[in-house]
Amino acid sequence: MRVFLTGASSGIGAALACHYAAAGVTLGLAARRQDRLAELIAELPGEHACYALDVADAAALQAAAGDFIARYGCPDIVIANAGISVGTLADDADDLHAFRRVLETNVLGMAQTLQPFIAAMKARGSGRLVGIASVAGIRGLPGAGAYCASKAATITYLEALRGELRGSGVEVVTIVPGYIATPMTAVNRYPMPFLLAADVAARRFARAIERGTRYTVIPWQMGVVAKLLRLLPNPLFDAIFARAGRKPRGLDL
């Protein structure tokens, strides 16, 4: 089996890489940090390809996809996992750069990761395209407008893509994680209910991908929370979350 994975250098991406490599899968691993990728590749069993790139760079992703297909064939699974998160404030002009960067990485980066493989998967009549979204895309959280908007967009994009590819043999899997213990969440200064270790989350993600689940929230408890959040009337939601903890601003993007 062959898997192409972005955001592979740390967090859930690295955990997924370790999980699949242990199962004998051939991997194409993409991330911005070449040094971290090289360290990861050195630790993994088997032969794998390494691509140091930014998912905001469509040309770089096209080149990586072409190289991987030429070397190993069309992947069975493509996982658009790369993502960034930073606190933002709508009234601060300095945060507009961060807002743009989050959208470029989380939304355009996902589309640019999946697109280069679609034609080859359709021609073969099989394959799974996987997008890693977030429960933050369910409702808008104050101080996290960029991240919430980006993840809401990815959920909707994947839903649209699933309809486009219906009947082609190519499946679309939307994974909506809650809190996972990664460098991204390590900076959070507020309670994170149902927090999962990255390796535990990776195993659950892989099971959902293997089943071809169209949409799943992991862990399931956060799925219950997400449904309850949808049901909250807007005035009550606003009153509760206006006082909630917020992600720090000003991280290096």
Structure description:
By secondary structure, this protein is an alpha/beta fold. The chain has a single domain, classed as Rossmann fold (3-Layer(aba) Sandwich). The protein has nine helices and nine strands. It has helices spanning 11-22, 34-43, 58-72, 96-124, 145-164, 183-186, 198-211, 220-231, 234-241; strands at residues 2-6, 26-31, 49-52, 77-80, 127-132, 170-177, 180-181, 196-197, 215-218. It has a seven-stranded parallel beta sheet, sandwiched between helices. The chain has a two-stranded parallel ribbon with strand order 7-8. Strand 1 (2-6), helix 1 and strand 2 (26-31) form a beta-alpha-beta unit. The protein is globular, with a radius of gyration of 18 Å. The model has no long low-confidence stretch (mean pLDDT 90).
Structural class: alpha/beta
Task: Please report the first level of CATH classification, the CATH class.
Answer: Alpha Beta
Radius of gyration: 18 Å
- CATH topology description: Rossmann fold
Number of strands: 9
Number of helical segments?
Answer: 9
Q: What is the general shape? A: globular
> What order do the strands of the largest sheet run in, or round the barrel if closed?
3-2-1-4-5-6-9
Beta content: 15-25%
Order of helices and strands: EHEHEHEHEHEEHEHEHH
Taken together, the total number of domains comes to 1
